[in-house]
Specification:
mainly beta, Methanol Dehydrogenase, Chain A, 4 domains, 43 strands, about 35% strand, globular
């Protein structure tokens, strides 16, 4: 259950042309393009001089009074044509569907792409490498259009809700971050694409009871744990003939398998594909000959637990990309084979590899690869899992990693590094320094103009926030990171209620030294001022950069190991003289909601009050990709799913429970909630239940929803876990 917390849901224009901060670097890395007041501007380094290259007046269609609004944009390889994404529509989580317009910046000609197709139906439109064509998906089919004339060619015709071309089903999108499902060949003559066959996937019937007098059913192809995945095919269609050639990728005829990554292999005759088995503990890299369809395994890796795909820890790869070196003779690959997530240079045939990064630390994120300069830029935090810094390392693997983030800037950094590694946007914060962004030169980390980050750090006062980061060691000798916020005017001779905020699963890390980490945005008021102690703890299995053993220890033990770690840590907290053992509350959302239920049911003598939101009560109801990755396949170890599910322990409830769920949740489905409710009813366990009609996993839709949810949360907490010292 991903930690899709309501405050993290934002309008993200996650299209094939989108990049970090809606900024697009020029190929030479000496300038970038961005949107300012609905105009596209070019900012040149190092002086940050701005030049408008697409004024708003050029974006006004003939016969219209207003310019089209830019949600995102892309330039062709010659920087002469601009593709504009507008009128965006949400597809499950993100606005990946809408309208596209193409502007010839030399002639000023503005034309709508796919004009004959339904409004706001285009997805992932992108220029061919030579800039002459634009490809996109509409209504599950792949199209290509002449960039100048608008002549349209439909490349697939069999697409529908059950047979998906060029994009993905719900499970692939949610769990593999796969959305853009096609790739142009380097010679602009072919397009490789995924086809997902969801015909045999069972439908979850979501019921909308609020928008009409009669209920409306919305079916979603949703393979729950134990159900076979949607079969995939990888095809290559030639524009000259419109014919698709399919790759011969093997799969298990019963269990099936997955292809989460596919790219052109640095030429126009081969594809490189990552193939995962159903258990997701074996990864094969395949080279596919597009003429014959033959697939050859060049690199293989196995893990006793699971293998993380790249985009699950480095979101820059969610929309494609493969890091080739030496004119396609090598590529960069990440592995945890030595116990840490490190980068390797692998030969094209997979027969040789070089370890690039070394040491007792995890590579958190790849920021840039400057092959000409010989460096890879990446994020890491050796010895301090709650922070994040920029490093660089020679691609040869020689020497050690060089830390580039200044030593005085202790906290969480994010960088958007230019292709040449010469410049970057730096965003920094810690728990007492609000987010601030600078433009810098690298590797010296010198600010371009005003040194905003350094000035903010110099002015920041740690005493401004009463947040404490600490570690806690349990009776099992497990040491975990934690933060604590003590009440305002704290008196150590008195006792205070404690509220634990939990997530606990492999998809989320709570304890991070960043601005706002301690803020409970559901609480209507100030928890510290009202007299609460607020704590969060990251147990084993959370995706902290503490090595593979830490992360993988939870395999087949979700609902057991993470819950025990949390409870054992809470037992240590309760030994503090200022903690009131009779006023202990816990809350969480999604996976954190599941943890809240398990803590309330499995350790009822510790946790007296719980507020669980959008929780999975029965692990067998959740999707196969996520749940099987961390728990195995129910047909092989069903008891592990039962042992980890809150529904198994519902009869043990003693304290006060508020259970909240959206009836329109496409992620953690509402039937899961009713299963848990039935179990509580069966054993006469009294609780409060709040279903939010037709709200999704974020419970964010509808007028007044957040205010109602916040009021409900705060009122219940104050009633059953009263604030203040005693």
């Amino acid at each position: 259950m991903k930690c899709v917390f309501y405050l993290l849901i934002s309008v993200v224009f996650a299209t094939s042309v989108a990049t970090s901060q809606n900024i697009h670097w020029a190929p030479d890395g000496k300038s970038y393009y961005s949107v300012n007041d609905n105009q596209i501007v070019q900012i040149s380094m190092p002086g940050l001089e701005a030049k408008t290259i697409v004024p708003a007046v050029k974006l006004t269609p003939t016969g219209k009074q207003n310019a089209i609004e830019i949600a995102d944009f892309a330039l062709d390889s010659n920087q002469k044509q601009v593709l504009i994404f507008t009128n965006t529509q949400k597809v499950w989580r993100f606005n990946t569907r809408g309208d596209y317009w193409v502007l010839n910046n030399s002639t000023g000609k503005l034309r709508q792409v796919g004009k004959a197709l339904p409004a706001a139906s285009l997805m992932f439109a992108k220029f061919s490498p030579n800039g002459k064509k634009i490809a996109f998906v509409s209504n599950y089919n792949l199209f290509v259009e002449d960039a100048e004339t608008g002549k349209l060619q439909q490349l697939t015709t069999d697409g529908n809700r059950k047979l998906i071309n060029g994009t993905f089903d719900w499970a692939y999108e949610e769990e593999f971050f796969c959305r853009d499902g096609f790739r142009w060949s380097p010679d602009s003559k072919q397009i490789a694409y995924w086809q997902i066959d969801a015909k045999k996937v069972k439908e979850y019937l979501m019921i909308n009871n609020t928008d009409s007098i009669y209920p409306v059913i919305q079916p979603v192809e949703y393979p729950s744990a134990g159900e076979a995945p949607s079969p995939f095919k990888i095809g290559v269609v030639k524009l000259s003939t419109g014919k698709t050639y399919w790759m011969n990728i093997p799969t298990d005829p019963v269990l099936q398998s997955y292809v989460p990554r596919m790219e052109w292999a640095s030429n126009s005759s081969e594809l490189i594909v990552q193939h995962l088995n159903r258990l997701q503990n074996q990864s094969d890299l395949l080279l596919c000959n597009v003429a014959t369809g033959q697939a050859t395994t060049i690199y293989n890796e196995k893990n006793a637990a699971w293998i993380d795909i790249l985009s699950s820890w480095d979101e820059d790869y969610s929309y494609g990309g493969w890091d080739w070196l030496n004119s396609g003779k090598e590529f960069v690959w990440a592995s945890e084979k030595d116990g840490w997530r490190h980068l390797y240079s692998v030969s094209r045939d997979g027969k040789s590899e070089t370890l690039i990064t070394t040491g007792a630390y995890d590579v958190i994120d790849i920021c840039a690869i400057d092959e000409k300069g010989g460096y890879v830029y990446f994020m890491a935090s050796p010895g301090k899992a709650t922070e994040k810094y920029l490093y660089r390392q020679l691609l040869s693997g020689n020497g050690g990693a060089q830390k580039l983030s200044p030593p005085g800037q202790v906290g969480t950094h994010n960088y958007f590094v230019s292709p040449t590694g010469s410049y970057a946007s730096q965003t920094f914060s810690n728990y007492f320094t609000p987010y601030v962004t600078d433009w810098i030169s690298l590797p010296g980390h010198k600010a371009l103009g005003t040194n905003l980050v350094a000035n903010a750090v110099a002015k920041a006062d740690p005493s401004f926030k009463n947040v404490e980061f600490f570690t806690i060691t349990t009776a099992d000798s497990i040491t975990m990171d934690a933060f604590m916020v003590k009440p305002t005017n704290f008196d150590s001779t008195k006792k205070y209620p404690v509220v634990f905020y939990v997530y606990t699963e492999p998809a989320g890390q709570n304890v991070v030294n960043r601005w706002g980490v301690e803020k409970n945005r559901l609480y209507n008021g100030n928890m510290a001022a009202d007299g609460y102690i607020y704590i969060s703890i990251d147990n084993r299995g959370t995706p902290a950069p503490k090595g593979a053993a830490w992360r993988k220890s939870i395999y087949r033990k979700i609902g057991i190991l993470n819950i025990k770690d949390q409870a054992m840590a809470a037992a240590e907290i309760l030994k503090l003289p200022f903690v009131d053992k009779d006023r202990v509350a816990v809350w969480g959302w999604s996976g954190g909601g599941s943890a809240t239920l398990n803590l309330m049911f499995q350790y009822p003598d510790i946790y007296k009050t719980g507020i669980s939101i959008a929780a999975v009560g029965n692990q067998l109801t959740y999707d196969n990709i996520y749940q099987e990755r961390y728990m195995g396949i129910p047909q092989q170890n069903r008891q592990d799913f039962v042992n980890g599910s809150p529904i198994t322990y519902a009869k043990n409830l003693k304290g006060n429970l508020l259970y909240i769920h959206g009836t329109g949740d496409d992620n953690v489905h509402y039937n899961n909630a009713e299963m848990l409710v039935n179990e509580l009813i069966k054993y006469n366990r009294q609780f409060q239940f709040m279903p939010y009609p037709n709200r999704t996993h974020s419970i964010s839709e509808g007028e007044g929803t957040f205010r109602h949810l916040s009021t409900l949360f705060t009122t219940y907490l104050k009633q059953h876990c009263p604030p203040g010292a005693k």
